[in-house]
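Fold this sequence, please.
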Amino acid sequence: MTLPPLSLYVHLPWCVQKCPYCDFNSHAAGDAAPRQRYLDALLVDLESETTRGAGRTIESIFLGGGTPSLFSPEEIGRLLRGVRANFDIAGDAETTMEANPGTVECGDPAGYRDAGVNRLSIGGQSFSNELLKKIGRIHSSDDIVRAVNNARAAGIDNINIDLMYGLPGQTVTAALGDIRSAIDLNPTHISWYQLTLEPNTIFYARPPAELPNEDTAWEIQEHGRKLLAEYGYRQYEVSAYARDGRVCKHNLNYWLFGDYLAVGAGAHGKITSPRGIARFVKPANPLQYMKTVEAREQGPAPVLVENAELTFEFMLNALRLTDGFTESGFCERTGQTAAELRTLMSRVRDKGLVARDSESVWRPTSLGRRFLNDLQAEFLPDRS
């Protein structure tokens, strides 16, 4: 197997409050979060990851959460200096930080830029104050506008806005209004995804009233996709739209089965070595994570991905991409042959779920994109 590009994910787990739809490893803490202790642990964890990253260059860095912007620019600067001290970083590396637009949730964007952040992902979700309240957000529509304008004024020109659709009581017209409001701010990237009721969330236990039905959600998606395309936002993944080729390099590496180091509570990593492809995860509870790192203890042992799982794991991600994937990319990332791939793909092609655009490129059809879960399930390993 050829070594794929390498990224780094850093998890910063605290929020001001937990959103009722969120199933990420995040914890309400705000000012009570032990930020300095956690940063100390991250720096130790980064040093421990140098063995996995030895001799390789990091192409992208992603600071996710939680709400990473609860950490001050000085704290983010300390973290990123630690990254640079331990790893070889590509000169054009993309460094993304997630931020919420509320005034209590974000420091000075110029300070983040000086710390090394060159891409900001702003969690807007909706421009309707009524809908923001319904989904438990603590910022306003004006806060989103202010956050984008402040980031751009500070010299950060690569900006993503997160939007959700399928919100309680949301109509097609309201959903398209959210997109138009985002477009008016001229971000380079828009992530537009459907609200889903994930297990272990408040909304799963107590679903909100008036959720749009499946047909309405599909109508929203189709009209929204066309509107985004009209204004130059090309869909390159199920929920990702970019202008001028400004795709998210970090996420694209995930979707194309690249490698990624991971530090922080509950962070997941994937690494390719002569032994095969291994996945690893850090302790999820922030306190347990800090204790484990401080004691220089090893977390759960990495787990090798069995050959029977490789195809499914590859397809789980790559089939999310509008342009699909190349046969050579599949072979390089999984160690399997083009002949094996073609045998597998012929079955789903016969069902109209994928197409072969050329001699070497496979992509999901519009039918495959609509029924993506069914398409991905076609590659589940046979456990009989």
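The two ends are 28 Å apart (CA to CA). The chain is about 40% helix and 25% strand.
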